[in-house]
Design a protein that fits this description.
Blueprint (H helix, E strand, L loop, with lengths): L1 H21 L6 E5 L6 H17 L3 E5 L6 H8 L7 E5 L6 H4 L11 E16 L8 H10 L5 E4 L5 H13 L4 E4 L3 H9 L5 E5 H9 L4 E5 L14 H5 L6 E9 L4 H15 L2 H11 L8 H21 L6
Parallel strand pairs: 1-2, 1-3, 5-6, 5-7
Antiparallel strand pairs: 3-9, 4-7, 4-8, 4-9
Length: 321
């Protein structure tokens, strides 16, 4: 009898799992934030959690697990049960840490299934208002004239701004002296105070200061002008070199999360991402521009970032520590 019940359970398991997927979600969903509470990533996770909560009728919780440049929270999410109830909000560090840190503890595409890219934001190249650097050409010429004489602040190791600055230097064949801070805010304070000369910073962390006139943007690093800073030229307009660097945010699930759940989450996000009020809110409060993308598109996007990062760090002769 026990053997019969065991076999019955075994053969019914796929049907049970399919039923669980079809009624997803039937309990709260957690979004893991691998960075500090109150930061841009945390606030963005909470905003999307509110949007998804209205759509699914289930609570979306935010679990902040900061530390080690995002590794602690990312590892935690990678090891979670792949049932759709634990998700990760990822940033550029997600596709960078495995190249910077030995035994990072996760593989971006083996341990995770991308659900959707929920925002792309440009990088602004900013200087102090009284800086003699008026445009990109001034920056390049100054750096070539005196290598390492210009101090370039960034928000931290592995930040989107640091990556953009590194790519810019490699492309332009110039050398800046990197000054790494624990966040964008202290870096901007030193820029304004004249202790650094330039900063490559993601829109969410610098847009407010630019619009308030606290710093001056000399260019953005996107291929085309941003609708959020339409009067600021791109690096390409000055040099026609095809330079493109951006920050991004994505929603990930542990690998082996059922495809039906991934697709349901993706379709809901794509429905929301084109709503005018969502587009306006993402732009105004997060400096982020949205675009429609499938789960396959998101996977291809992460794969492309991994290739870009590996190539860039090889050029810089950076090896995992």
């Amino acid at each position: 009898m026990k053997k019969f019940l065991y076999l019955l359970f075994f053969f019914c398991l796929p049907t049970h799992q399919l039923f669980a997927q079809q009624i997803f979600p039937n309990k709260p969903i957690t979004i893991v934030v691998p960075f500090a509470a109150g930061g841009g990533t945390d606030l963005l996770a909470r905003y999307w959690g509110q949007l998804l909560q209205k759509e699914f009728g289930q609570t979306f919780l935010v679990d902040v697990k900061p530390g080690a440049g995002g590794l602690i929270g990312t590892r935690y999410a990678a090891q979670s049960v792949p049932d759709g109830y634990t998700l990760l909000i990822a940033t550029p560090a997600f596709a960078l840490n495995p190249f910077l840190i030995k035994n990072a503890g996760y593989d971006p595409l083996k341990d995770f299934q991308p659900i959707a890219i929920i925002g792309i934001s440009g990088i602004a190249i900013v200087v102090a208002n009284d800086s003699p650097i008026k445009n990109i050409q001034d920056l390049i010429e100054s750096a070539k004239k005196a290598p390492n004489s210009l101090m370039a602040g960034n928000a931290g190791q592995g930040s989107a701004g640091q990556l953009a600055a590194a790519a810019f230097q490699a492309k332009m064949k110039i050398q800046l002296t990197e000054v790494t801070y624990k966040g964008a805010a202290p870096a901007v304070i030193d820029l304004i105070g004249g202790r650094t000369d330039v900063q490559f910073e993601a829109f969410p962390s610098i847009l407010t200061q630019i619009k308030a006139g606290k710093v001056r943007a000399i260019a953005v690093t996107l291929k085309n002008r941003s609708s959020l800073l339409p009067n600021i030229e791109t690096v390409n307009e000055s040099n026609s070199i095809g330079f493109d660097a951006s920050s991004w945010t994505g929603l990930m699930a542990p690998t082996k999360t059922p495809k039906l759940i991934i697709e349901r989450l993706n379709k809901t996000i794509q429905k929301l991402i084109v709503e005018p009020e969502v587009i306006a809110h993402l732009g105004e409060f997060f400096g982020s521009e949205s675009f429609v993308n499938s789960s396959d598109d998101a996977t291809a996007f992460v794969r492309e970032k991994l290739i870009e990062n590996e190539k860039l760090l090889r050029t810089m002769n950076v090896k995992p520590q």
